[in-house]
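Tokens in:
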């Protein structure tokens, strides 16, 4: 009985440590964007929305009128009069059906507004 319990504990630690490694090793796709004034930017991630997961803004822009995800499309529009740089980080999280969500993909938008 003690051997089974010990084996279960060791397996649990291995699974948890593997999950943490997966999350930290997700590579980022860096997308550089240049916009004029309040020009609307749209970036379509996919034609479908994930069933077990979602696209989430992990790091939000600071100077925006619109910075949101609608049905697997990211929309950004700068605040009126803003000129400068914004950085937005978006991740796709998902689960194989066990409510254990991990990051699968990450996008970093480097937005320059002129």
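Residues out:
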């Amino acid at each position: 009985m003690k051997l089974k319990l010990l084996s279960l504990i060791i397996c649990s630690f291995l699974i948890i440590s593997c999950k943490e490694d997966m999350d930290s090793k997700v590579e980022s796709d860096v997308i550089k964007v240049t916009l004029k004034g309040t020009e609307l930017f749209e970036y379509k991630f996919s034609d479908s929305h994930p069933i077990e997961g979602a696209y989430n803004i992990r790091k939000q822009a600071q100077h925006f009128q619109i910075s949101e995800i609608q049905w697997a499309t990211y929309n950004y529009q700068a605040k009126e009069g803003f000129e400068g740089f914004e950085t937005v980080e978006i991740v796709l999280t998902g689960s194989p059906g066990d409510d254990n969500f991990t990051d699968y993909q990450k996008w970093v938008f480097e937005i320059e507004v002129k």
